[in-house]
Specification:
By secondary structure, this protein is α+β, with helices and mostly antiparallel strands. The strands form 4 sheets. A 5-stranded mixed sheet has the order 7-6-10-8-9. A 5-stranded mixed sheet has the order 12-11-15-13-14, with helices on one face. A 3-stranded antiparallel sheet has the order 2-1-5. The chain is rod-shaped.
Length: about 300
Amino acid sequence: MRTAALTFAASLLLCMAVPLHAAAQTQPQMQSQAASDSHINAGDQLNVQVFGEPTLTQIVTVQDDGNIQYPLVGRINVGGKTPPQAADEIKTALLKFVRHPIVTVALSQEGQNNVLVLGNVKTPGKYVVRSGAHLSDAVAAAGGLGTTNGDYPKARVTQDNGTATEVSLQDLLVGGKSKLNVPLSNNAVVYVEGPLPIQIEVVGAVDHPGYYTVHQGDRLSVAIAQAGTSANAKADLNHVTVSRDLNGKVEKDQINMYDALHGGDRTHSDPVLEKDDVVYVPQARQGNAFNPIYLIENLIGIGTHI
């Protein structure tokens, strides 16, 4: 019995050891394959080795134009190539000077680029990203997009050479159009558009009548929430009036905001505001049981854009 148990235990350990040994061999192979498949970018440092030629074995830095400066042959373009492809380029160039050169290229250190991210992002500023980074990397480095209403905004990417590209972040991040993910040069500038601020006026039965700044795409409920509708204000949100100047003619529209809360058409019951709108909130009659604060909180909770 004891011998059988020991034999079984030894067999179990042997079975466990085989996958571990295989994994130990597979992991370096996977890492080596990943390094071989990576593409070379400006700023990368490459370890170039030529068998039997110690003077030609050295570390070189990829310049902004994708070239390296290499002994005997001068400039060689390796930007965008994989390390094995770069090795072939160097080998071909060395054939004039070395008989049957054996060349290997390895990525010694990834380069880094500076990028300035401005506009509607959470933390605008200057960031260091990896060489070969794209627009989405810059937005992520800045903490992601800031406040948006509806579709994601556009971004303008200005490269170090002055060329500019406009990209729809809606198409890139939501639509999955990866071709729009613009690569960034060193010292590129990314500007993300934001909803423009507009000024409106809120008067009547609100806590703080006056002028308020909202953004394009914001709805009536957002403005009234800023002005405040506590129980002391006694606001009647069944009969809110929005006055709008249309080419010199003032148009007034009466709004019943409770319709939006009960599944009504928000296009009319909680409309999108425009610049210089005047919002008038009348005082409720005695005995009105509606809770204006509850209404505003729920309207904002279901979104400010359709």
